[in-house]
Structure formats: C-alpha cells, structure tokens
Amino acid sequence: MYLFLLQEVMEGYECKPRGRVILEQRPLVLQLTDPRFYEICNPNRKLSKGLMIVEPLQLLAGESNPEQLVAVAPNYAQFLNEKSELDGAYPPRVSRQMPYILDLLERDPETRQAVISIYGERDQHSSKDVPCTETLQFFVRNCKLELLINMRSSDAWLGVPYDLAQFCLLQLAVHAHLRKSGKICNDLELGTFTLIAGSSHLYKRDLEKAEQLIRESRLNDVQPKEIEEYPEILFSESQMYAQEVLDVWSGSPATIHLPNFFWNLSMDLRELPERVSSSSMVRTL
Questions:
Q1: Number of domains in the chain
Q2: Is residue 26 part of a domain?
Q3: Helix and strand tally (H, E) in the chain?
C-alpha cells in the first residue's frame, strides 16, 4: 500500500506552495480495512520508533509535550513558537471534545455528528505549526466502528507513517472503550480507517529517497509484514515516557497507567482470527 501511495504522488502535479517544490495528488483516499495493520513494516523505510510511541501516547493522554517530541524527533524543534510550544498540537484539541463524542456515540450510535474538529478559525494566522488534520469523524455502521480522517495536507514521506500510528491507535482506544461500555451493540467490531487528503504530496527534497525506497523494495521483493512484534516494542518502550495522566475519556485523574492501558490494546492486536495482512486501498479522485 505505501509503495503504491508514493508512486501515485510521484506521478502528480508539480507546484510551489510557500515557494517549496512538491509533487501532489489531490484529493487522495487511503483506506485500511483493518486498522490493526497500520504499521509500515518495509525494512528499507527507516522510521522513528520513538516518535511512533510518543505521538500516540500524547494523543491518548490529551497532553502536548514538545520536549518529548524533540527528544525523539529533533526536527520538531523547527515548529516550536517563541514559548517553545506547538501552536497546532492535536492532543489538547482532541481530548477536550472526546467525552462529548463518546457520550454521543453511546446515545445515538448511528449519528453523523461524532466529529472532532482540529483545524479551525484560530489557526488562520502566521504560525510555524498549522494543523494538517481538519476533522476526525467516527461512525458506527453494521456494528463496526469506523474512523474517517480529513486532512488539508498530508506529507506522504514524513507524515503518513506517523499519522497512521496515532490515529489508528486512537480508533483502537475508542473501540475498546465502547466495547467495554456495552451500550452500542453486543459485539462491536473494528471497521475501516479512511484518510482523505486534500493534498497528498512529496517535497522535492524527499523525492530521491522515495524513488530509492521503491527501487530497493522491488529488488529485495519486500512483502507486507504482519503486526506481531510491534506491540512488544510499543508497550515496553512506552514505560520511558508514560506517567500518570488525565483520564482521556472523563477528564478525571487517571486511574490506570498508560502502559497497562496500551498493553490491553496489544492483547486485542494479538487476538486476530487469522494471521493475514489487511487489505488496503489508495485511490485518487
């Protein structure tokens, strides 16, 4: 799926937003039929495991900690404002809206109003950190929890792998909460994860790396890898970062430790009926 995504974008339109050359496909739709298979496991694509741990933890905790992010991904420093904060940080925006969204889904499972807004009027000013994500929308259809992400801008090289990690794990967490409450249906299942990008793009500086990745993957006949080892990496290393935090769902002091919560999610990941790779889809409209 990821190699196909890169190929699609590399065949896109060349333009220069903010004077920086990009190749762009717009709009682009990426869909995972099973969000448990979110990790890009291509060994030729060197990703920051630290960032894939810290971003989801902060999103679920509802707390933005730029110092942690810079520690695992030094490039984050370029997006900090004069107060060493991230103007467009997702965690506080998501956590403030989550209690209402969960309550709404339990009261009216087939609602079309379970929308978390991230980008908004407050972001229409000069900033180093403008949110790329506009909205997250949850649906329950046929007793399955679906998540639809709308993004104004999606960097196929630097953004997509980490966006999949944090948003798919958020979907898993919401699914676990709703299953535990038992208010929607007897056996709520995981539904699709869909990302719609207004602009899916590659910066010219990353084009050669993307071409090399495709070349090496073809030479080495890279096959999709199942997500079996990743939970242990995620949940053991998260001990370094996780502390007692605000309870994401109710806003009250946390009664659970984040690593334990994540460990429970890892058990869901391992209880797959069949060890097969999830099908996925990328398409342009």
A1: 1
A2: no
A3: 8, 10
Whole-model pTM: value is: 0.80
Domain that holds residue 151: 33-198+225-284
The alpha-carbon radius of gyration of the chain (Å, integer) is: 19
The tokens describing 226, both together, are 């199942």
Question: What is the DSSP-derived secondary structure letter of residue 240?
Answer: G
Diameter of the chain measured on Cα atoms: 53
Q: CA–CA separation, 179 vs 177, rounded Å?
A: 5
Strand, coil or helix: 45 = coil
pLDDT above 90 (res 82):
yes
Integer angstrom CA distances of residue 95 from 64, 132, 137, 181, 246:
11, 17, 14, 19, 10
CA distance linking residue 38 with residue 242, whole number of Å? 22
159 domain-assigned = yes
Contacts 24+ apart (CB under 8 A), 93-97: 93/117, 93/118, 93/131, 94/59, 94/62, 94/118, 94/136, 94/170, 95/61, 95/62, 95/63, 95/246, 95/248, 95/251, 96/62
Beta carbons of 133 and 162 less than 8 angstroms apart: no
Mean pLDDT of the chain: 79
The pLDDT tens digits of the residues spanning 260-275 come to 444 444 333 334 333 3
Q: Tell me if 139 sits within 8 A of 145, measured CB to CB.
A: yes
CA angle 183-256-192, nearest 5°? 45
Domain annotation covers residue 240: yes
- Rounded to 10 degrees, the C-alpha dihedral 121/53/196/102 comes to -70
| CA–CA separation, 206 and 209 (whole Å) | 5
Structural domain contains residue 103: yes
Over residues 89-114, the mean pLDDT reads 94
Q: How many CB atoms lie within 10 A of CB 227?
A: 21
Question: Residue 151 belongs to a domain with what CATH number?
Answer: 3.30.572
